[in-house]
Amino acid sequence: MNIILFGPPGAGKGTQGDNLKKDFDLFKISSGDLLREEIKKKSAIGIKIKTIVDKGILVSDDIINNLIEIVLSKKSHSNRLIFDGYPRNLSQAKNLDVLMNKYNQKISCALSLKVNKNIIVKRILGRQICSKCGLTFNTFFNPSTKENHNCNTNLLQKRSDDNEGIINKRFATYEKETLPILDYYKDQNLLREIDGMREIPLIYQEIRGIIDTLET
Length: 216
Known about the structure:
The protein is of the alpha/beta class. The protein has 8 helices and 8 strands. A hairpin with a 5-residue loop joins strand 5 (127-130) and strand 6. Helix 1 packs across helix 8, helix 2 crosses helix 3 and helix 4 packs parallel to helix 5. The model has no long low-confidence stretch (mean pLDDT 89).
């Protein structure tokens, strides 16, 4: 199965995607992770991407689409994908349909996490990511402790784009460009909307229930 996760920045897509990846043995495609990997490589395209991201502007469709196709083309990933942060606009959604047909795959469902802006800001400003194990924590909602994190707390880092100015810009961009995609998947009877304001386990319980209906 292939699943798309929607929601504004900080809605919890990454956390829920990690849960699905673990429980259903899936591969998660995060456009953000793909972009950050290029930045880490300090390639020519990575340097260009960093300049764009630091300004709070979305990277061009061509760059994203090419990175997505590289992952999608791998046979080991066939119909075992979670899309987190892609597609972000209607053009990307239509491109994904083309790629799905090209590689003989299909979208099983699109999950939309609904969260208000005030919570989004707090979630992102408090976000910390471990540079060693990759786990994500939050100083407000889910702090790193000895019980849930084995690495040194000195390894916890904030992303360069996690500041309030960029958050506001990204949220506005999401509302303008990404929300129309929900209608696109709704028309295909693939959209499922989820209250993302609840506790993480409750959200995941609902998602699991939806996934279980897809498998039967």
